[in-house]
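Appendix B. Chain record.
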Amino acid sequence: MSAPPVLTPPPAGLWERWGHRLRPTLTYWMQTEVHVYGFSIAANVLLSFFPFLIVTFSVCRYTLGWTATVDAIELVLNDYFPGSPGDPSSFFEFIRRNLLATAGSRRTLQVVSLLLLLFTANGIFEPLEVAFNRVWGIQKNRSYLRNQLISLGLIFVCGTLALASTVLSGVTVKHLGETSPLARFLEMTLLKTAALPLGMLMLFLIYWLLPNARIPPRHVLPAAIVVGLALEALKYLNLLTWPLWRGKLRAEYGPFTYSVTIILWGFLGAMIVLAGAEWAARRHPLAPVPTSSNSLRREGQTPYT
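Structure tokens predicted for this chain:
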């Protein structure tokens, strides 16, 4: 009989314990393929960002006829992007001005924008599935068609949740009066209260459904909560540090400053999402499944080994 493995006790100090816990994640981040996944996700975030705004704006204004919800969209943008309304040099004003000019000139929900949004948003989930399959030890990815079908369902669910949060705030303002200080306070409170749990729910669905295997929901729920909090912290980090490196980006990239900014922050967000998947898989490794399992093959799912 072989001797039982010797278990190394965790470090005693606080910093040593945190270093012991974060070391696997840092090692994971240093892998070349993880950076490839992150930049691929960030590029598709850039491609789908403005079409998503156009579709959301058009649905709220021209389909639902709720102008107060349009104000809620602007409030969401101002919560994520630095700057103030009316300041031509601010990131927020740049997006708001172009959104109003583009969506306002169409007066209808554009089919082309919707199709472009579906195509580019699907591109976000392709590298995500490959990355998730790697961390869970899943050998086979879905076919392109099956990946697109799963991605399409996630897009509709996540888009509906995001739109519901915005519409809820807009309806509140519509009943209380758009210029009422109470309405503005309640709008901001509702947005901030709903955004965090809805974001965690979106992450949970992505972590649970996107890998090409049956992942127990309890294995990914803690990761969805932690990553949701981390992305919220990243948002405020962006707002705090934007004045420090705005000038540097403008000097280096000129007219492409805002595009580069979205890619950089999209990459950081993608790396946090990927780290959450790695953390969940490390804490709850999936048990090997016999390769001769006919039930998994019929469902198009792969063994965990």
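Further analysis of this model is presented in Appendix C.
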